[in-house]
Amino acid sequence: MSISEDASRAKVNTVHLARDLKAGGSGLARISGLYIHIPFCACRCYYCDFFAQAPGSEAAMDTHLAAVIQAIRRSAACGLLADITTIYIGGGTPSYFGHGRLVQLAYTLGLSLDLTRVVEFTCEANPESLTPRLVADLYALGVNRLALGAQSFHDSELRALGRIHDAAQIQRALQAARLRFDNISLDLICGIPTQSLSSWQQSLEAAVAAEVSHVSVYPLQIEPHTVLEAQARSGHLVLADEDEVATMLLVAADRLQAAGLHRYETASYATRDRECQHNICYWTGQAYLGVGAGAASMFNLSDGSRLRLHPANDNPSNINTEALNRKQALAEDLMLGMRMMRGLSLKQINDAATLLPGLDAAIQELEALALVERKDDRLVPSTCGWLLGNEIFLRLMPDVLMRAPANNSTCHSIR
Ligand code: SF4
User: Fold this and answer.
1) Ligand 1 within 6 A of 41 CB?
2) Is 290 in the pocket of ligand 1 (CB under 6 A)?
3) Which of the two residues, 188 and 1, has the higher pLDDT score?
4) How confident is the model at residue 2, as a pLDDT?
5) How far apart are CA 191 and CA 371, in angstroms?
6) pTM of this prediction?
7) What is the DSSP secondary structure assignment for residue 223, as one 8-state letter?
8) Which of 377 and 28 is assigned the larger pLDDT?
9) Where are the domains of the chain?
């Protein structure tokens, strides 16, 4: 089955389910985020294990566009888009999808929902395919935020990642983006083979000099079945060790915050009021609808339970449905909430502890390990907790929080 057929079958299933939930009186809560997945790229980057066709064929992209437009129109027709406040077109590489298709997509969105209620409408782009004409047309059709996959400002590092753009193209894309947009995000990767601390600092300086409103910083991950993994296995790759990567993350935090981009999430920095509202929707348990092969959806029901739908890895036309009861959904919100620097309010934790028997013990352990700390009336990740985020998430997994402590010790509220 082709990626486009996957898209059409998967999205019809998701939209039908949401429509049936809404019509069936199960109290489908408002859906605030709309994610549109464009799973096509010019070629596959060496570190990428995302669901994407690279290179994307013209025929497959045409079929995908038709499926996505159909899913958007059907969603609108049954009222699923009435409360959307954020839209995110992600990939893959949306700018590779082509000017004509992207314009059709954005035009369809403008016809299908009230864009005056949409506070943030992001489109991802890669430097080699973002043109001044595309910038102008996306802006005219309602897009108000561009997310640019820069990754590094050094050509040798970009080559090591298998990226097809160079640093000069990043600068040209930024120049084009600035013709219309004042909300621009850059992605950067640290821990790239051949990268030194000083070259990392130069990339950070270039990002600061670009005066963008948002920067996302990711440590390179070596994923199975990627070119980098094959290089690592054959001994042809010298990777930064954990301490070097931690130093790069700390250097990034210092430099970006000194430049007025505050860290509001594990990997995200923004100037005031430019935090990514769409991602905050994910981290705060708000419902979202995903359209396009590979896009996940999440629906909240009025009894506090939750449904998550995501395409199966082996066959994206099959949608896996994960049902979370109220307690599981609550536990998930706590785990996701700790991705954000504002963490969780003590009230939220105390309220949740009445339903989650393992929560008090988990919080005590996190405090004892200095992974979290109290600030005013909130529990927030410490610097150590930020660097070792998985250590926090493991202790706040829904399964852990729903388990009663083994020693039957008396639970106490956090004050
Ligand atoms: S551009 Fe993004 S999605 Fe496409 S191959 Fe590269 S990392 Fe993967």
Assistant:
1) yes
2) no
3) 188
4) 52
5) 23
6) 0.92
7) -
8) 377
9) 3-281, 340-415
